[in-house]
Amino acid sequence: MLGGGGILGASEVGMVQALQEHGVTADLIRDLAWQMRGFDESELYFHTMGLAGFGRSDDGQSILVTDPAATERLAASLRTDTMETYVE
After folding, report:
1. 81 and 50 in a common domain
2. In the chain, pLDDT over 90 holds for what percent of residues?
3. Predicted confidence (pLDDT) per residue in 31-43, tens digit
4. Are 68 and 53 in contact (CB under 8 A)?
5. Which domain holds residue 52?
6. Are 35 and 56 contained in the same domain?
7. Which alpha helices (DSSP H) does the chain contain, by range?
8. Cut 0.85: pTM above it
9. Taking a C-beta distance cutoff of 8 angstroms, is the pair 50, 67 a contact?
10. C-alpha torsion sign, points 52, 53, 59, 62
11. In this structure, are 54 and 83 located in the same domain?
């Protein structure tokens, strides 16, 4: 599979397939980007996913292990549009 930056590896292909399975398409991303023109950057929040630690995948790659409780808190904040009150 080719992307804008060249050939995608297996993990990138898997990520693209997962996004497509959930209805995330290039058209959707383009439309969302278009809607963000003039977006007020003071309303933009950046956070790192809650982590439980570090580990290794079955094939030995270094991975970040997510914290399910922290992930749920983040998801709840996204669902309820309360990111400004989300504190990790």
Report:
1. yes
2. 5
3. 988 988 888 888 7
4. no
5. 45-88
6. no
7. 10-21, 26-35, 68-79
8. no
9. yes
10. positive
11. yes
